[in-house]
Design brief:
The structure is a single chain. By secondary structure, the protein is α/β, with parallel strands linked by helices. It has two domains: 1-37 and 84-134 and 185-266, Rossmann fold (3-Layer(aba) Sandwich); 38-81 and 135-177, SIR2/SIRT2 'Small Domain' (2-Layer Sandwich). Helix content is 36%, strand content 16%. It has helices at 6-18, 30-33, 46-49, 52-55, 58-63, 65-80, 86-95, 111-120, 186-197, 217-223, 250-258; strands spanning 22-27, 100-105, 131-132, 135-142, 148-150, 173-177, 201-205, 227-231, 244-246. The chain has a six-stranded parallel sheet, sandwiched between helices. Strands 5-4-6 form a three-stranded antiparallel sheet, covered by helices on one side. It is globular. The structure holds ligand BJW and zinc ion (ZN). Ligand BJW is lined by residues 28-30, 33-34, 39-42, 45, 56, 106, 108, 134, 177-183, 206-208, 210-213, 231-234, 236, 249-250.
Length: 266
């Protein structure tokens, strides 16, 4: 298949999706960029001004929990002010349609879930709820026991003594996200790979596809004979495997790609 661009590529991609019964979506930070959530890599990415080794590893949290909490509080504050964009909403409408669609996200911002609830209205949002590979920034969990709860409100990070502690065992709480060197939830990862395996298309949106094991999800679809369709303004490490690369912002490309597709398998 050609890697041509523009209207022709969009139509080809719609054709592939229209004939698929099952579709897996792998999303990354780029899908939330138009909502105002910063990405990690690239010109304005978080890793330009912050070192992942200082902020996104268990060693960093052990070394300076206050600094790590402070950075997460800054991000949580930013995310509280962000709403789903037309890209999240188009994905949610697509997942609530007739196809089997599984949204697998590396994002921790909760915006896919918010879009699912908003689009479903009084209906059932569950087909559009994402598998969150890297956890959620709006949840906290205990560093010692199994305590885990949603937590959106501001947390004081002024001194180490102020940091939140577990109501069950008094140990320090942490953001419920997956840091470098930590394992992903095995059940969540297994479900993501299963979804990729049974899909005829994997739609890869707004990710540099550099972080493992998330970046292997589309490979499973590809190895099973399925297609990869990429939506990203710039080429990525996956582009060479993609049947079609749609070069643009997901907030514009996804509604054009997904809205009004014929029912599954036609
Ligand atoms: C737009 C756009 C618009 C812009 N529209 N698009 C095998 C080989 C090598 C290394 C490893 C390996 N297996 C494991 C590792 C180690 C490591 C890893 O992958 N390292 C690589 C970086 C080299 N992985 C891990 O440690 C993972 N754990 C693990 O595997 O456990 C077992 C194990 C441990 C140790 C050794 C071996 C095995 C855990 C990874 C956890 C990642 N955590 C983070 C932070 C999460 C919490 C938080 O948010 O604070 O997750 S890092 C960060 O990267 C975050 C993201 O989810 C993740 C992916 O980033 P993403 O989404 O791709 O964002 P960007 O910024 O990179 O890309 C944005 C894209 O959007 C760009 O392409 C833009 O062009 C595009 N874009 N605007 C559409 N409008
Ligand atoms: Zn505890």
């Amino acid at each position: 298949m050609t890697k041509d661009n523009g209207a022709q590529a969009l139509e080809k991609a719609r054709g592939l999706l229209a004939s698929a019964d099952a579709v897996c979506v792998l999303s990354g930070a780029g899908v939330s960029a138009e909502s105002g959530v910063p990405t990690f890599r690239g010109e304005d990415g978080l890793w330009q001004s912050h070192s992942p080794g200082d902020l996104a590893t268990p060693q960093a949290f052990r070394r300076d929990s206050r600094l790590v909490w402070e950075w997460y509080e800054w991000r949580r504050g930013k995310i509280r002010g962000c709403r789903p964009n037309p890209g999240h909403e188009a994905l949610a409408r697509f997942a609530l349609g007739t196809r089997t669609v599984r949204i697998v996200t590396q994002n921790v911002d909760g915006l896919h879930e918010e879009a699912a609830r908003r689009v479903a209205g009084s209906g059932d949002p569950s087909p559009a709820l994402p598998l969150e590979l890297h956890g959620s920034i709006v949840r906290v969990r205990c560093t010692r026991c199994s305590y885990k709860v949603p937590h959106r409100n501001p947390i004081s990070t002024a001194t180490p003594e102020n940091l939140p502690s577990c109501p069950v065992c008094s140990a320090l709480l942490r953001p419920d996200v997956v840091w470098f060197g930590e394992s992903l939830d095995p059940a969540v990862l297994a479900e993501a790979f299963q979804a990729a395996q049974r899909s005829q298309v994997c739609l890869v949106v707004g990710t540099s596809a550099l972080v493992q094991p998330a970046a292997s999800v589309p490979l499973v679809t590809h190895e099973g004979g399925g297609y990869i369709i990429e939506v990203n303004p710039t080429p990525t490490s996956l582009s060479r495997l993609a049947s079609l690369s749609l070069r643009g912002a997901s907030g514009q490309v996804l509604p054009a790609l997904l809205d009004g597709l014929a029912t599954a398998g036609t």
